[in-house]
Amino acid sequence: MLIHMAMYDDDCPDSVKRVVLNPDGTVKPVAHFEVDGGPDENPSHIETRFLQAELAMGGPLLDQHLAR
Predict the structure, then answer these.
(1) Do 68 and 54 touch, CB atoms closer than 8 A?
(2) Using CA atoms, how far apart are residues 11 and 8, in angstroms rounded to an integer?
(3) pTM for the predicted model, two decimal places
């Protein structure tokens, strides 16, 4: 999803593009992401479910009146 967003979404932040793409626009072979080890790593955790639903409804560009 990050690769698709970095390559094709005009609104993609430059920070995401720097992590996923090489300067010439090709995909980097490996991207390493570190997480804090909290409950957000568990897909069945309630907060993760809310975030997944929010992403499905528009994510960070969600209208403020629809945000949880």
Answers:
(1) yes
(2) 9
(3) 0.42
For the chain, what is the domain count? Answer: 2
pLDDT in tens, 14-48: 888 888 899 998 988 876 666 666 666 676 777 77
* Element of type H or E holding 20: helix 14-20
Per DSSP, 27 falls in state B
27 phi/psi in degrees, rounded to 5: -75, 135
Look up the domain containing 49 and give its range: 34-68
Q: Are residues 46 and 26 part of one domain? A: no
> Which of helix, strand or coil describes residue 3?
helix
Query: Environment class of residue 2 by beta-carbon count within 10 Å: exposed (0-12), middle (13-18) or buried (19+)?
Result: middle
